[in-house]
Amino acid sequence: MKQVLSILLIGYIHLAISAQQVPLDSIVKLMENHGKIDTAFVDMRLDYMKNKLFLTPNDTSWLTYGKQTLKMAQDLNYPRGEAMAYERIGIVYQHLLSNPYKAIDNFQKSLTLIEKYNHFKFLEASTLGNIANIYREQGELKKALKYYKKISINSEHRVLASAEIGNVYSDLGVQDSAIFYYKRAIKWSVEEKNPLFEAYTRTNMSLILSRINKHKEALQNIEQALELIDAHGLEFVRSTAYANAGVVYLGNKDMEKASLYAHKALALKESLDNLVTQKAIWGTLADVYEYQGDYKNAFESYKKYTILNDSLASKDRVLEVSRREIQYEADKNQALAQAEIERQKLIKNSSIVGGSVLFALSIFGLFLYKRKRDAVTQKQEAEFNTKVANTELKALRAQMNPHFIFNSLNSVNDYISKNDVEAASTYLTKFAKIMRQTLENSNRSEISLEDDLKVLDLYLQVESMRLKHKFTYKITVDAAIDAENTLVPPLILQPFIENSIWHGISKKESKGHIDISIKKEENMLICTVDDNGVGRTLKANIHSTENKSMGISITKSRIDIINKKKNTKGAILMTDKDEGVRVEVKLPFQLAY
Amino acid sequence: MIKAIIIDDEQHCIDRIVALLKPFKNTVEIIESCTTVSAGIEAIESLQPDVVFLDVQIHDKTGFDVLKAIKHPAFEVIFTTAFEFYAVQAFKFSAIDYLLKPIDEDDFRLAIDKVSTKLEAKDFSKKITALLNNISKTDIQKKITIPTVDGLEFLEVSVIVRCEADINYTTIFTKDRHKLMVSKTLKYFEALLVNCNFFRVHNSHLINLDYIKKYSKGKGGYVTLTDDSVIEVSTRRKDDFLKAIRCH
C-alpha cells in the first residue's frame, strides 16, 4: 500500500509545459507557412504535439501523428527528432492509450538514440523519468528506483528525481533512505529557489517523520511547507499539506490544530478528488474526536476512514490482481507454448526414434531377405551345377561302353581267328559276363571298389587268355581299405590297363607283368597301374598314329568333372620308367556308409 | 543219377547245355530235350525229372507257363535267360537258380553242384509257388524265399522292418517282432530290396522306410522305427536318406 501522498503523478511533461509555454496558435501558423519538410518542421510538429496532446486526450489520431513525425525524422536522418518522436509516441501510449509496456518500449528506443548521439543528452532525464513513473505505477518499485537513480544529479530534473526516489523508498518502507533523498531534494530546491518542490518534498517528508514518531521534526517541516504555500500561493500542494498537517499535529497531541487542519483540508475541492488525502483526514478526525470524547463523531469519522481504507485497499488489490492476472496469463501462455514445444519435440523425437527403428528393421529385414535369397540362389545354382556335372558324367560313362564293347569285340575276333571253336566259345562267354556287369555298373555314378575290381579282374583274365598268357597280373588292395565300403567311379582304371596291354605288353617280345595296386594316402585313393611294357616313347615309334587313347581322354574329363563337383584334387600322373609306364590315378577317398 | 530235361526253343542253346553237361556225364543224365512248352509239360509229367533247364522265353510263351501247368512239381528248376530283368528279380526273390546266356562254364558247374546237394530238401513246390506268385506281383507284394537252418521261409516284403548285418549273416526283424538269422550278406538283401522302399542307412543297417516313426537330427542322425529300435544313420548317407524319405 502506498504510504506517501504523491502529488505529482503526472510527470515531467507538465513541468516542461510550464517551462516553455508557447501559444498553440502561433505554432499552427508557423507550420502552415513553413511549406517544406525539414528538421525545423519536425521540431514544430513535436512542439505542437507536446502542447496539444493533453488538451485533446480523446483524439485517437495522436499515435498516427507521432508515427508520421517519426517517419519524417528518420527520412531526414535527424536522430534528435527521432528520439523526441519516440518519446512523444511513448507518452501517447502511456497516457492516452493506457498501454504502459508499449510506452516503455518507445521510451527505450528514444533512450537508445540519446545514448548513441551525445548532443541531445538533455532529453535523457525526462525519458528516464517517464520510464520510472510507468514502473512505479505498475508497482514495480525496484525498477522504478533504478530509472530514477539514472537521472543525472546535474540534470534540471534532479530535485524532482530525488523527491520521487524518496517517495519510492517510502512506499518500500525504507524510511531512512526516503528521508535521505527528501532532504537532498529540499537542499537542491532551496539552492534553485524552487518553493513548489520544497513545499512538496517537506509535505511528504513530514508524514514519514510522523510515522516514525519524529513528531518535532515533522512539525517543523509541515509548518515550513504551509508557510511556503501561503507565501507563494501553491494551491497544487495545499490540500495534501493540510491533511498531512492534521496527521502531524495529532502526533504532537495538538488536537485543536489537528482538527483545524483536518477541517481546512475537507473544505478544499482538491481533497475530495483524492481518496488518500480524504482517508488521512478522516483518520485524523476520528482520533481527534475520540480524544475530545465526541464518540459519535469519532465513530462516524472512523467509519468513513474504514470505508476509504477498504476502497483504497481494494483499489490496490485490483491493481495487484490485474497485475497478477496479466502475469498469470503470460505464465499460462508461456506454459502452454512450452507444453506445445515439448509436445512437438516429443512428436519429433518419437517420430525420429520410431522412424529410425522402422528404418533399421527394414534394413535388417532386407538384409535377411537378401541373405535368404542368396542362399536359395546359391543352393539352386549348386544343384544345377551338380545336375550338369552328373549329366556330363553319365554321358561320358555312356561313351565308355561302346568304346569298351567294340574294343572287346575286336579282341574276341582276334581270339576266334587264332583258336578253335570250343576255346572261342568259352572266351566269348567270359566276355558276355564282363559286358553284363559293365552295363549294370554304368547306370551308377559310383560303385564299390570290390565290384569294380571284380570287373577288372575278369577283363584281365580274358585279355590274358587272348594273349596266350603273355603277361601276368596282380591286384593288391591295401589292408587299410575296406573294398566293399569304398566307392569309386566305375571303369576308371580300365583304359589305362587296356593301354598297358595293347600298347605296352603286346608289342613286347618277352613276357610282361601288370601290377595294379590300391592304397590310401591322406584322404585320396591312389590307384596305380604299373607295367613293364615297351613304354610310351618306343610305342610312339612303333605306332606313331595312335598316340592318343580315346578311353584315357574320356577318363581325364571324368576326373575333371568329379573335381569340380566335389571340389577335390583328383589327378592322373603318367611316369615313363626305364621299362614300361606307371600310371597313378588319384581319386577322392569315399566311403559308402 | 540226376535226371534232367532241357526246354528251350533254340537248338543251339540246347546244344550248349548238352556240351556243358559233358563233364558231368557220370552224375547228370539228359532224359529229354524239348523246344515247345506243351512238349515240355508232357515230358515232365511222363518222365518225372529231378532237374529241368528251363528257358524263360519259349516262342510266344514262357517257362512260367510250363510250371503253372504242373500240378505237383517235384523237381529243381534252373532257368536260363539272356537278359530278362523282371524274371531275374523274381528268381532272386524266390531263390530259384538261373543261368545267364551265354552260359559260363564256372557258373554252370556251381549250379549243378547246388542241385546235387539240394535234391534232398524237396521244397520244390513251395519255391515254385512263391516264384509264380512273385512273377505277377509288384515288388512290395512279393514274398522273399529265405533259406534258414530249418529249411525255407517265405516272407512277405511288407512285414520286414529292418535287416542288420553281422559279418556274413543277416538278421531280419519282422513287424510281429520275429527275428530271422540268414546266412546271406546284408549286401545281398540290399540288392534284393532296394526297389521296395528299403534304404541302407548304415554299413550294418537296412531299414524299411514304411516303418519309420521318427528322425532325430544329429551328425548323421538317428531313426526310430515302429518297433522302437533306434538306428544310427551314417553321416555319408544322411543327405541321400533325407532325400529318400522326402520322396517316400
Can you give keywords for this protein?
heterodimer, A: 593 residues, alpha+beta, Serine Threonine Protein Phosphatase 5, Tetratricopeptide repeat, Heat Shock Protein 90, two-stranded antiparallel sheet, 7% strand, rod-shaped, disordered N terminus, B: 248 residues, alpha/beta, Rossmann fold, OB fold (Dihydrolipoamide Acetyltransferase, E2P), 2 domains, five-stranded parallel β-sheet, five-stranded antiparallel β-sheet, 17 strands
3D architecture notes:
The complex is a heterodimer of chains A (593) and B (248). Chain A has 593 residues and is α+β, with helices and mostly antiparallel strands. Among the domains of chain A are: 1-186, Tetratricopeptide repeat domain (Serine Threonine Protein Phosphatase 5, Tetratricopeptide repeat, Alpha Horseshoe); 389-588, Heat Shock Protein 90 (2-Layer Sandwich). Chain A has helices spanning 12-19, 24-34, 39-52, 62-75, 79-96, 100-116, 124-137, 141-150, 158-172, 175-191, 195-211, 215-232, 235-251, 255-267, 269-273, 275-292, 295-418, 421-442, 449-466, 494-505, 535-542, 550-566, and strands spanning 447-448, 471-477, 487-488, 512-521, 524-531, 571-576, 581-588. In chain A, the strands form 2 sheets. Chain A has a 5-stranded mixed sheet, covered by helices on one side. Chain A is rod-shaped. Residues 1-21 and 541-547 of chain A have low confidence and may be disordered. Chain B has 248 residues and is of the alpha/beta class. Chain B folds into 2 domains: 2-136, Rossmann fold (3-Layer(aba) Sandwich), CATH 3.40.50; 155-247, LytTr DNA-binding domain (OB fold (Dihydrolipoamide Acetyltransferase, E2P), Beta Barrel), CATH 2.40.50.1020. Chain B is built from 8 helices and 17 strands. The longest helix of chain B is centred in the middle third of the chain and has 14 residues, at 105-118. At the A-B interface, helix 18 of A face loops of B.
